[in-house]
Specification:
With 232 residues, the protein is α/β, with parallel strands linked by helices. It has a single domain, classed as Rossmann fold (3-Layer(aba) Sandwich), CATH 3.40.50. Helix 8 links the parallel strand 7 and strand 8.
């Protein structure tokens, strides 16, 4: 916690290093910002869970996007929320999602919010909404989703295990009228977004689209080459 606070203070007092490449002079340099705000790509997990909305991601979860997200979420560099919010806003603009829009952020766990002092995804969604409103769109952020129970750490779980781990994990309050778009930082198997969409449907709302900053790359199966027979 102390390290995260010191990092945030240093961002204000000394010339910052780019969270994407390490260069001096900006929280996110123009070259890294361009990578974050590239045209979004549709992401379809290898075994998409039932009820998963159409998902779009601005970048792969590697390189610049991964480094910026880790600095933002794990190292207390909360000022990076501006760059990540711009990333989401640009992705929504590319998709030409018609308003009025209702951005529903996937919530962090209570433990995570206490540790970080804020909800990272909600903060990014609010930045994106402000940028879109400045462009003339009607956009609201509706933090209606709530954790309904504790879940296990997702790291290392298969797609099926993640789906089972998250089943019934969220509940939702009523959602304002408008085109509902789920927002998250990273999509891996899609289990979290599918569960969030289920909770929204139970509350009477439909989210047919989700936008994230990044998506994990699909694993490419390694092909084992058959040994050639050797004739003498």
């Amino acid at each position: 916690m102390v390290v995260r606070v010191l990092d945030a203070v240093l961002d204000l007092l000394v010339p910052p290093r780019c969270a994407g490449c390490g260069g001096r002079g900006a929280l996110v340099c123009p070259r890294c910002a361009a990578e974050l705000t590239a045209a979004p790509r549709r992401h379809v997990p290898d075994a998409p869970p039932e009820g998963l909305p159409e998902c779009w991601a601005a970048a792969g979860y590697d390189g610049v996007a991964r480094r910026v997200l880790i600095a933002y979420k794990e190292r207390g560099r909360t000022a990076l929320g501006a760059a990540l919010g711009a990333c989401l806003a640009r992705a929504l603009t590319h998709l030409q999602v018609e308003g009025p829009l209702v951005l529903v952020p996937v919530p962090s766990t209570r433990r995570s919010r206490r540790a970080k002092g804020h909800d990272p995804v909600r903060r990014v969604a609010e930045v994106a909404a402000r940028r879109l409103r400045a462009g003339g769109l009607q956009v609201t952020v509706a933090p209606v989703l709530r954790p309904a129970r504790k879940v296990a750490d997702q790291a290392g779980l298969t797609s099926a295990q993640r789906a089972a781990n998250l089943a019934g994990a969220f509940t939702s309050r009523p959602v304002p009228r408008g085109r509902v778009v789920l927002v998250d930082d990273v999509i891996t198997t899609g289990a979290t977004l599918a569960e969030a969409a289920r909770a929204l449907r139970a509350a009477g709302a439909e989210a047919d689209c989700a936008v994230t900053v990044a998506a994990t790359r699909k694993r490419v199966p390694v092909m084992r080459h058959a040994r050639r027979s050797q004739f003498r």
